[in-house]
Fold this protein.
Amino acid sequence: MSNDVIEATPEAPVAPQAFTVTLNIRRYDPDSGEEAHWQAFDVDVFPTDRILDALHKIKWEQDGSLTFRRSCAHGVCGSDAMRINGRNRLACKTLLKDLDLAQPIYVEAIKGLPLEKDLVVDMEPFFASYREVQPFLQAHSVPPKDKERIQSVADRARFDDTTKCILCAACTSSCPVFWTDGQYFGPAAIVNAHRFIFDSRDDEAKVRLDILNDKEGVWRCRTTFNCTEACPRGIQITAAIAEVKQAIIRGHR
Ligand code: SF4
Ligand code: FES
């Protein structure tokens, strides 16, 4: 009897198959005088393509006037947040194979910010709220000569989650309070305030807590969790907002 080992023949890799998908895109051109409307585009894609790839194909091969923002294409710059099938996501992080391809795909601009063209909104109100919370380190003590400001691992961990924000606005523009009250700071501004409020090296936590104790501040949050579900960085936004509320009640971080 032979003891030869018969090895399984490795299966040849199967090349992914291209298929045609229909993207319904909410178009708006302020110069046309027309209302915003849906336009369908059939585009050949691979399952591993992302919504951003499909948008590029449409722009490059079918309609060069299609307008959207993107920069890094890898989930870092935060410029391509949009509503995809009714949910805020980054186009560059949304794989077609993760969507229900039996249904049409709908892509539109994020809500609650002024629409400029197609998928582009005016981000200025969003960044105005961001600037208001003073999102930068304000450390007044002088560290010993030639030494850094010491921070323990536990102190650094205190605000680690909120350092991950890429300012995409997916959270703020999914918040029903923000939709109805454009004055509300919104979750992204609170997340970025949290990042410095709980930084042990910073000396102006109280100033930021006073800013967020405003009538348009954290108390507008109704804990609907839309923001947390929308965040492409997985930041626990609702928990961060709750920590800021508790710090306001305590009177210090
Ligand atoms: S908290 Fe998340 S969803 Fe909100 S702006 Fe930052 S990265 Fe985007
Ligand atoms: S293009 Fe930069 S996050 Fe998507």
In short: The domain at 19-121 is CATH 3.10.20.30 (Ubiquitin-like (UB roll)). The longest strand covers residues 19-27.
